[in-house]
Amino acid sequence: MLRRKIESYLEEWKRNSNHKPLVIKGVRQCGKTYSVQQFAKTHYNHFVYVDFVENPDFKEAFYGAKTVDTIIMNLSAIIENAKFIPNETCLIFDELQDCPEARTSLKYFKMDGRYDVICTGSLLGVKGYGSKNKKKEKDKGSSVPVGYETIVEMYPLDFEEFLWANGVSEEIIALLKKHLETETPVTAAIHKRMIDLLRQYAVVGGMPEAVNTFISTHNISQVVDIQCGIVDEYKDDMVKYADDSFKNRIRECFESIPKQLSKENKKFQYSVIKKGGRAAQYYESLQWIEDAGIAKRCYNLSVTELPLDGNAKEDVFKVYMQDTGLFMSMLEYGTQADVLKGNLLGYKGAIYENLMADILSKMGRKLYYFHKDSGLEVDFVIRYKGKCTLLEVKASSGNVKSTKTILKHPEVYHVTDAIKLGDYNIGRDGQLLTLPFYMGFLLTEV
Asked: pTM of the prediction?
């Protein structure tokens, strides 16, 4: 069983005596349902599982229901042998986006207080752009229960969870943190092992089925088949949940991501989606993909200073896949073998950058970069230890000319710290801290 960080969150949520119904949103197959079911099995005497996709009839239990008693009565008539015992039963509403009325009911469950409710879903149907269910909500009077639910996003496995899955102990991770704090090189054996694991993560990514298959078989072909199947399911969702006028545009946006990142200038360009394409045609489609948790925008900064969000250019950005393994599955087959051998700089550096975007976004960080028409460009800019910090992802001989230029002019760029990550050990050259790429997941301090 894969160890997931959501487990600790769920335990903390349950300990809070005043907790609200919980909504866990995330991309398809990132492990939401499994994690919630395992939690309910070990923390409650009983749980009732309601899947609105596999059993559409469950939706009928919520239509017109205005009280918890009515909903429980309706569900008990549908689900054989279900036990609804106050303060002992947890209700799990899966694929919540398929039943907006169930989401509305969370207000009643919070006010009633007798049952814990945990929901999972993409929420595209209730919080999407171009969503079919928007009209359904309006027609049926369903609404978002503002103030009566807690929403948390769950991602595919991040790099640290991937390390746990591959047997890396807490002691080793603590040791890596100590090396980072003291800026001392990691011992050769651990350094090599971590580099190998990072390359494997770049190929496998964090989808639980892909990770489990890799751990049990180490067969990359099987892993890729699973990843391609998940990508196909994403495309099916684009058809299922989007209005007819959006379907083709959403798919075109999604399929253009590898093309966007293969350019020397990786700025997202609507004309790459389709000749003559414009923001007015595709902006909402791109927003749909990001809301689904499939991709993440990385915004260009007007100036390199805090707050980063306040200095972001909303109309100038790159787009990365949220999961590096799924991104790899969209590239030419055989690229996986190159990466496992250490060639992460293929595809014009897109793999290296998408891997860093994966690591940062799964921390819950927003993504930013810096580019000026004069030629200055820095891969990522983050808030680290209270400072605006440049973050470069390069090979051992990677050029960081732009970073050095920025550091030489703090009166202009307001930056005094930079980090370079790549296939090398820890070191420092003045204001530039060099780290092995695998330490990117440790840059959590803000």
From this structure: 0.93
CA pair distance 430, 223, nearest whole angstrom: 42
User: What is the pLDDT, as a whole number, of residue 242?
Assistant: 76
Is residue 439 predicted with pLDDT exceeding 50?
Answer: yes
d(CA 205, CA 224): 10
Structure-token match 């399911």, residue found: 233
In angstroms, the CA 326 to CA 206 distance is: 9
Cα distance between the two ends of the chain:
31
Tell me the per-residue pLDDT of 106-162, one tens digit each, with 9 for 90 and over: 999 999 999 999 999 875 543 443 444 444 444 445 678 889 999 999 999 999 999
Crossing angle (nearest 10°) for helices 279-291 and 244-255: 80
Q: Three-state DSSP class for 48?
A: strand
Omega before 436 cis (within 30°)? Answer: no
- The number of residues in the chain equals 446
Amino acid at 19: H
Q: Are 392 and 419 spatial neighbours (Cβ–Cβ below 8 Å)?
A: yes
Residue partners of 368: CB distance under 8 A and separation at least 6: 298, 299, 300, 301, 308, 312, 380, 381, 382
